[in-house]
Amino acid sequence: MADSDGSDAHAPPAVHRLPPRPAQGGGGAAAEGFAAALRRRLSSGAAAAARASFAADSGDESGSGEPSSSSSRRRDSGGDTSSAGGGRGGGADFASFTFRAAAPVHHKAKESPLSSDAIFKQSHAGLFNLCIVVLVAVNSRLIIENLMKYGLLIRAGFWFNAKSLRDWPLLMCCLTLPAFPLGAFAVEKLAFNNLITDAVATCLHVILTTAEIVYPVLVILLCDSAVLSGFLLMFIACIVWLKLVSFAHTNHDIRKFITCGKKVDNGLSTADVDGLHAPTLGSLIYFMMAPTLCYQASYPRTQYIRKSWLVRQIILYLIFTGVQGFIIEQYINPIVVNSQHPLKGGLLNAVETVLKLSLPNVYLWLCMFYCFFHLWLNILAEILRFGDREFYKDWWNAKTIDEYWRKWNMPVHKWIVRHIYFPCMRNGISKEVAVFISFFVSAVLHECCLDKHLLFMSFNNSCSAYIEQIMIL
Questions:
Q1: CB atoms < 10 A from the CB of 47, how many?
Q2: Which stretches of 23-100 are DSSP H helices?
Q3: How far apart are the first and last CA of the chain?
Q4: Which residues of 405-422 are buried (b: 16+ CB within 10 A; e: fewer)?
Q5: Which residue among 44, 58, 248, 255 is buried most deeply as judged by most CB within 10 Å?
Q6: Active-site annotation holder among 277, 374, 446, 453
Q7: What is the pLDDT of residues 182-207, one digit of tens each?
Q8: What is the pTM of this model?
Q9: 127 vs 28, 141, 362, 455, CA distance in Å?
């Protein structure tokens, strides 16, 4: 044994001998010997894999290497080791010290996988899959229970009814909204040609943006329109308003660089210099159609349109739009209609109704987010070959409200930072006040969106009255 240990350093590489072939015309003994040798040869690889697996399971950090010196000596001997284990099934390979009862299995201190020190150092894909299975099972039961209780409540009257055919004033209002961007473009052309002063251009932009947002509101109030038609009109009007503000503010800043020769602290790049010019009609049209709220002369573009990918996204968009309608009609509407008046039923009944609405509202919000921010904006970006598609970040990992608001809606966040926060900082406002103003404006914008979603969910007069009473409470 000592001789063997001393010769480990200079041991020759293992020699893999071919198993003896049976002689021509030999008897069954030769064939049996060839089969035994072949089994030993095949089992050696299986034993090596087993040793590596055992080492991993027992916590040995040596990995796939030989876990013990006795195993190394056996490997370096290179001889036929079948005699120790009987030769059948390669049992001799498992006679090493690693597989003996005397071999230690505890090598170092380790934490349990779910302990606070180790829980974030490993993958939880299995637990995530289990949660998905439980979620699907629970919600499948709820869907079946809802269908058995109420039946299929999907109706086309909420989405498109007889009033939808009479909503031509709203349609005409939507078709006339492009007149406001054209008016803003005319103002900028006059300003860049020094035909009007900068103050006059600013006043004209204020008038245009105010008229653009008031005009649809008046049309909706004067016309007895369907809910969906009014919602879509106001949603488009708000987007156009944000784009008009960005167009006016950006070109106002460009005029300062060009006409006043204003310098900046950090040097301009070539791309920045190329963007400092008067707007063109083509750049305005692309901006009004692009999935962004911040104007610039040019945007990063993709090389081509992926047609098959685009078709898949459109199909998913239609599917998730139908899912949103199913949630509204099948879950939210029956709960609201069957609920008691909040002032008559008491506080507990109101709390119960809110809790019943919480789960379908969460599902509706998630479907809305995926349908709009991922599917629709990517569809629009793919058609226009718009390159910057960071429409949202990982808001689900946000640890604070501040981080959540900065991640979940990137187009609005970039608009807020560019046109509110940075101008406040440049005008000498403290950072705290600038952050407050930015969050205030962001809250107002999101509150407007929330009010529109409440309008979208106001299916009938009773539902509207219920929501008003909830707000009073």
A1: 20
A2: 28-57, 69-77, 82-85
A3: 89
A4: bbbbbbbbbbbbebbbbe
A5: 248
A6: 446
A7: 999 999 999 888 888 889 999 999 99
A8: 0.66
A9: 56, 21, 22, 39
Q: Using CA atoms, how far apart are residues 331 and 445, in angstroms rounded to an integer? A: 28
Burial class (CB in 10 A: 0-12, 13-18, 19+), 278: middle
Reduced DSSP (H G I as helix, E B as strand, rest coil) percent helix, strand, coil of the chain, to 5: 70, 0, 30
Model confidence over 300-359: pLDDT tens digits?
Answer: 999 999 999 999 999 999 999 888 888 888 888 888 777 766 556 667 777 878 888 888
Residue 405 contacts residue 445 (beta carbons within 8 Å): no
Q: Which pair of tokens denotes residue 346?
A: 């008491």
- Distance (Å, whole) CA 467 – CA 465: 5
Residue 419 a catalytic site member:
no
Beta bridge partners of 386: 301
Residue bearing tokens 């507990």: 348
Please report, as a single letter, which amino acid is at residue 214: V
Q: Where are the beta strands (DSSP E) in 243-380?
A: none
Q: What are phi and psi of 301, to 5 degrees?
A: -125, 150
